[in-house]
Structure formats: structure tokens, C-alpha cells
Amino acid sequence: MQKAAIVILNYNGGETLRKFLPSVIRYSKFPIIIADNASEDHSLEVLEKFPEVQVIRLDKNYGFAGGYTRVLESFKGNYQYYILLNSDVEVTENWDSGLIDWLDSHPDVAALQPKILSYPRPDNFDHAGAGGGFLDVFGYPYCRGRFFDHIEKDEGQYDDDLMVDWTSGACMAIREEAFHKGKGFDGDYFAHMEEIDLCWRLRRMGYSLYYTGSVKVYHVGGATLSPSNPQKTYLNFRNSLLTLRKNLPNLYWSAIYISRIFLDMLASTVFFFKNEKKHSKMIIKAHLDFLKMHKKYEKELGPRIPPRGRVRFLLWNFYIMGKRKYTEV
């Protein structure tokens, strides 16, 4: 069994690969595998210029969740660790060995993410993962360094190691055994929040998840779906509800779901009056599609647990109390 593999999932990211793959090759110790989700652009032509990289071609676009799970299932038994990396990430020297060495010295930890900074604004945290990810009681994700769209400047305030609720899919190192015991990413999600769901399931199994500030990478973000794309709104809201239904205790879920209906319809109304009607409709569609899907998960076995959320009520703290930083709460 080999130590680790760096696995990058690609879909129509030819220019992104051309720009960022050289840094991954330059600074990485472990082999690099590109799984291509049936790209329709020039991605495969670009990859021909990097013979040191192994390329796996999928027969169709399975999304982030389905693509990764399908590819990693084919590697089962070959590696101790997987390092999952978005194609739009610039890495730094010894980044991969830093993550794997950390996991080697913490055998009870299933997955680890580094400090994730913004590539366009390198002194600031990135939206996806930042200084460690958590969930509030309503299932809204937040990070140290990012509340909603408010991003903090990196001033060394999160240079520690910390147990978290979830590790970012933009860059995470995960034990092979844990990934497969947790059944990987749920292909029904397609994209967005699949790593939060997997991490919650791993916590239910007794594993810990961690962030380390000792390794840093730089992430562009929005390479697959722009924040302005209504489909992103749809996936975020639908997948958030699925994640809560799958992992919360039943009584806890019932109370939270009633609250989420109110809060999400409020968000839909705000989008409507901001003249962003497509986003408004996508929130409603997310709830309707959730109702078609949720029974699939009602009999899922295993203990269910609430989020660890250090900030219990993110909406209250952000919009009512005006707190914009993790350190203020």
C-alpha cells in the first residue's frame, strides 16, 4: 500500500489546470491523479503537457460528489491517505507532506484541512474552509475567518490546530479507511456540502476532524459554479436540508426543520425583493425537491448527533448583533 495520492477532480477546467497544476507538480511529494468528469473543453489536451500526472477519464459528469466517490472506490486498498484538491488551488512548499505527517501523528483524526487563503486576495481567508469549518444549530455553515460573505484578513489569528465540524473539499487530507467506511461523498448531492455531510457521518462513527494553520494553500473559488449562479443557491439549500435530515436525531430534526422553513422562505423573499427572482425560486425548488428525497434517509442506521457549533445562532449574531468575526462571538 502506498502512502498517499493527490486526487484532483476536473470538469471543463482546462485553463485552470494550465495555471495551477504546475505549482502542484512543483511542490508535491506524492503522486498526482486527475479524474476528468467527461470534460467538453480542452482539458485533456492541456493534461497531455503534464506527463508526470496520471489521468483517469470518467464516462460522464458525475459532479463533485459522485466523481470523487467513483474514482476513489477504484483506488480502495492502494493508499493510506487521499489528498483531495480543487483544480483552482495554488499550493505551497511541503504542503502535502505537512498534511500527511500531521495525520500520521494523530491516528484518531479522520481528515485534516490546511489554512485556506484567497488566491485573488492573498492576505485574506478564502470562503471555502478558511480557518476551520463549523455548523450552527440550524445547519448553516461558517468558518473561522468567514461569516457568510464577510471575509477576515489573515493576521495569524488562526495559526493553531483545532477540532472542527467539517473539513473543506477545496483541500483535505483524509484516511482511506475513514473515507470508505463513511461510504464516501453522497452522489445525490452532485456538488456543494457533500464534504460537510461526509464529515458529519465520520463524527457519528467516532472520528475527529481537524484544521491546522501550519500548512496553507490559496484558492480561487467559484471555478465550477459562480456565486451568482442560481444553481449554486439551489444545491446549497437542498443539500443543507438533506445533511440535516440524515444526521440529526429525529426530535431535534423536527424542530430545526420548522425553523428552516421559516428562515429559508425569508431568504427567498429577500432575493425576490432584491430582483434576484431566479435565486428566490431556487430556494423554493430546493425545499420541494428535498421533500421528494428525504424518505430515502429516514431509516439510515447509526447514532445521530447535533453539530458541535461554537456559534449556535449564526443569523442572530451576524444580522442582529452585528458580529462579523469568529473572535467577536
Automatic annotation (TrEMBL):
| Glycosyltransferase 2-like domain ranges (all copies) | 6-113
Keywords of this entry: Glycosyltransferase, Membrane, Transferase, Transmembrane, Transmembrane helix
Q: InterPro entries per the record?
A: Glyco_trans_2-like, Nucleotide-diphossugar_trans
- Which Pfam family is one of this chain's hits? Glycos_transf_2
- EC number annotated for this UniProt entry: 2.4.-.-
Q: What domain of life does the native source organism fall in?
A: Bacteria
Picking any one GO molecular function of the record gives: glycosyltransferase activity
Which sequence ranges are marked TM in the entry? 251-273
Q: What class of enzyme is it?
A: transferase
- UniProt family annotation: Belongs to the glycosyltransferase 2 family.
Name under which the protein is recorded: Glycosyltransferase family 2 protein
Q: State the organism named in the record.
A: Shivajiella indica
